[in-house]
C-alpha cells in the first residue's frame, strides 16, 4: 500500500469538510482509481469528481497516471485567481 | 547583466502589496520601461450579470502557486527575451472593493520590446494555471468563482 496525503481547496474543501486527508491506496492505483474511490467513500465529493483538477507533487496530473508513493495530491476546481 | 541574474519575484501574500517597493526591486541600471498590471476588487459590476460585491475571499495552494508563478515568469522570458525584471504577486484573504488583489510587473530597457504584452500574458496565464480561488460575497449570498481552463500535460 502507498500512503498519500490529499489537500482540498475551494469548493472541494468545503464539500469534503476538511482541508487534508491521509489515505492508504494500492500501489498501482491511478488518478482515475483514486477519484472513483473518493466518490465512493465521500458521497458529497461524487459530483465534483468529474470536473476536479488533480495535482501530484504540485504538478497537474491526469487520469491514467499511477499515484506515486508518498504523493501530495491536490484536488480543486478550475482556478480563479487575479 | 546575464539573463539568469535578472530579478524574478513570485509571491502569495496576506499583506498589502507595496507597488513602489516591488518596482524598485525589478528596476536595474539598464531598465527604462515598466508595464504594470494590477487588478482590484470591483464593488459594482455592470457588465453581464450585474451585481454588487461586499468582499472577495481568496485562498491559494501556496507552494504550488508560487512554483506556477515562477513557471509563468519563465514562459515570459522565453517569449520576450528583452524582459529584465518580473514581479508576480497575488494577495489572499478577505479583500474589499477598491483593494488591489494581484500585480504583474515586467521591466525592460525600452517600451517597444514587448513589455506590455509580457505583462498581459502574465495575468492571462496566472488566471489559467496558478492555483488560486476566490469566493464572492454579495448582499444576495456567496458563491465560488470558478475558472474554465483545464491545464494540459506539462503545464
Verbal overview:
The complex is a heterodimer of chains A (82) and B (155). Chain A has a single domain, classed as Ubiquitin-like (UB roll) (Roll), CATH 3.10.20.30. Chain A is built from three helices and five strands, in the order βαβααβββ. Chain A has helices spanning 10-16, 31-41, 43-46; strands spanning 2-8, 20-25, 53-56, 59-61, 72-76. The longest helix of chain A has 11 residues, at 31-41. The N and C termini of chain A lie far apart (39 Å). The mean pLDDT of chain A is 96. In chain B, β9 and β10 (141-145) form a beta hairpin. Chain B is α+β, with helices and mostly antiparallel strands and 155 residues long. Chain B has helices at residues 19-25, 62-79, 115-129, and strands spanning 8-13, 33-40, 44-45, 51-52, 55-60, 83-91, 93-95, 100-108, 132-138, 141-145. The radius of gyration of chain B is 16 Å and the shape is globular. In chain B, α2 (62-79) runs antiparallel to α3. The chains are: A alpha+beta (82), B alpha+beta (155). The A-B interface holds A 7, 9-11, 53, 55, 58, 60, 62, 74, 76-82 and B 39, 58-61, 63-65, 67, 90, 101-102, 123, 126-135, 144-153, 155.
* Range of helix content of chain B: 25-40%
Q: Which descriptor suits the 3D outline of chain A?
A: globular
How many domains, in number, for the residues of chain A?
A: 1
Mean pLDDT of chain B: 96
List the chains of the largest interface with their residue counts: A-B, 17 and 34 residues
**Based on helices, strands and strand pairing, what is the structural class of chain B?**
alpha+beta
Order of helices and strands of chain A: EHEHHEEE
CATH fold category name of chain A: Ubiquitin-like (UB roll)
Encode the helix/strand succession of chain B as letters.
Answer: EHEEEEHEEEHEE
What characteristics describe this protein?
heterodimer, A: about 80 residues, alpha+beta, Ubiquitin-like (UB roll), 5-stranded mixed sheet, 3 helices, B: about 160 residues, Aldehyde Oxidoreductase, domain 3, 4-stranded mixed sheet, 4-stranded antiparallel sheet, about 25% helix
Amino acid at each position: 500500500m502507498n500512503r498519500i496525503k490529499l489537500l482540498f481547496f475551494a469548493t472541494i474543501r468545503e464539500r469534503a469538510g476538511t482541508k487534508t486527508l491521509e489515505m492508504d491506496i494500492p500501489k498501482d492505483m491511478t488518478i482515475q482509481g483514486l477519484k472513483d474511490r473518493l466518490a465512493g467513500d465521500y458521497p458529497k465529493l461524487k459530483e465534483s469528481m468529474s470536473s476536479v483538477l488533480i495535482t501530484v507533487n504540485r504538478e497537474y496530473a491526469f487520469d491514467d497516471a499511477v499515484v506515486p508513493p508518498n504523493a501530495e495530491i491536490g484536488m480543486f476546481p478550475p482556478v480563479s485567481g487575479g | 547583466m546575464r539573463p539568469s541574474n535578472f530579478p524574478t519575484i513570485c509571491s502569495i501574500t496576506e499583506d498589502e502589496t507595496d507597488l513602489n517597493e516591488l518596482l524598485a526591486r525589478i528596476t536595474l541600471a539598464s531598465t527604462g520601461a515598466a508595464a504594470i498590471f494590477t487588478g482590484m476588487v470591483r464593488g459594482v459590476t455592470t457588465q453581464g450579470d450585474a451585481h454588487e460585491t461586499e468582499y472577495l475571499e481568496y485562498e491559494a495552494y501556496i507552494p504550488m502557486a508560487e512554483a506556477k508563478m515562477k513557471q509563468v515568469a519563465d514562459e515570459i522570458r522565453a517569449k520576450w527575451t528583452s524582459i529584465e525584471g518580473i514581479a508576480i504577486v497575488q494577495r489572499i484573504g478577505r479583500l474589499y472593493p477598491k483593494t488591489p488583489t494581484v500585480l504583474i510587473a515586467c521591466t525592460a530597457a525600452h517600451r517597444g520590446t514587448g513589455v506590455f504584452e509580457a505583462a498581459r500574458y502574465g495575468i492571462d496565464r496566472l488566471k489559467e494555471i496558478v492555483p488560486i480561488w476566490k469566493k464572492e460575497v454579495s448582499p444576495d449570498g456567496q458563491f465560488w468563482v470558478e475558472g474554465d481552463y483545464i491545464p494540459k500535460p506539462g503545464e
